[in-house]
Amino acid sequence: MTPHLCVVSALYHPNLGGLGRQAQLLTERLAADGVELFVLARRMTGTGAGAFAPGVPVTRVWTPFPGVHILEDRSLKNLAISVIFSLGCLALLVARRRRYQVVHFHGASVPLLLCLPVLKLLGKKVVAKVAAANLGTEAGSLGGRYGGLGDWLARLTRRVDAFVAISEEIRQGLLADGVAPEKIHRIANFVDPTLFHPPAPGEREAAKERRGYGGQTLVLWTGRLVDRKGVAHLLQAWAGLAPRFPEARLLLLGEGQLLGDLTELARRLGVAATVRFGGRVEDVAEWLRTADLFVLPSLQEGLPNALLEAMASGLPCVATRIGGVTDVVGEGGGALLVPPADPAALAAACGRLLGDPAERRTLGEAAAAEMRAAFGLEARVATYRRLYAEVASAPRGSGAGGGG
Fold first, then answer.
1. How far apart are alpha carbons 55 and 52 in whole angstroms?
2. Could you give the CA distance from residue 250 to residue 149 in angstroms, rounded to a whole number?
3. pLDDT per residue as tens digits for the range 234-266
């Protein structure tokens, strides 16, 4: 039997990237299966309405700067937001301590670190999903940082009952931080096939006409405009592609502090006329069914949901050979892989697919088949239910099961 559950997810929203969307979809599906749960999330503005299941109780915790959605940069403002959110969550976790047995943190950063000691005093079990590798802000990348503080925080995280590592790189980081192997569960992210699926015959061309891209080849990127996403390298690659493919357009969907710098870079490279910065959108799935090619030029990722969603939508993809990307795709397996921070290689791979519609179609079909076979939502829901039950029934101080 699945224990009563509290889900802590600062970005619990379908419009704020993969981590928040994964938390929402998983939680709503668990609730639909009859699991007793509630969610603690950050109160934010400017996120768009989104669509939420009415049967899932969500408490929005106040923080300053509600219009700030990207917290991965290490700054005093972001630290203050995270600490205040964590303290608000902690007060609610104490007040509602009779309503749950297991707490699942989506992200293993400040909220986990601040709440963990009190949850252990309360006798609660804790599951933490690590969403990114090597950033120094989550479990698995704390050791050796911040003087002695990072090592102390790494020791603290060993009290977590079960970690979810979405990639092999993250699993290795947790091991390096001293987490016992039996506490680490390799559970990859999932894709909801009701949201992300290939377009129906004729749907792509009709959507391109409707959105102003009729007769053009649309190359798409989605994500946050931050350094580790490698968008500057994509623009540099595009500077070599745009003259060769005058009918092609590059659409960048997302928000972030680099918007001004990247807009200026596109202007200096002479490609501003063929590049559009579309901002954050609420209909990512529809844009994926509109595009012809998806590009992921990231320098660092955990396991990028943007890539999984593009592949599930039947899009051929060009991606950098990093982290979780190499866990799920290989050459010819729905994506062409190139070295990170290599605009020339990125341009060559994109040019190959822009010039060969048949190969684009073959790669896209292979990508969609791979996502259906290995990254479905239903299988992940069953895996998480087993994990929660194992964690709840395990004696104090023991890890739950094996590597997942």
1. 9
2. 43
3. 999 999 999 999 999 999 999 999 999 999 999
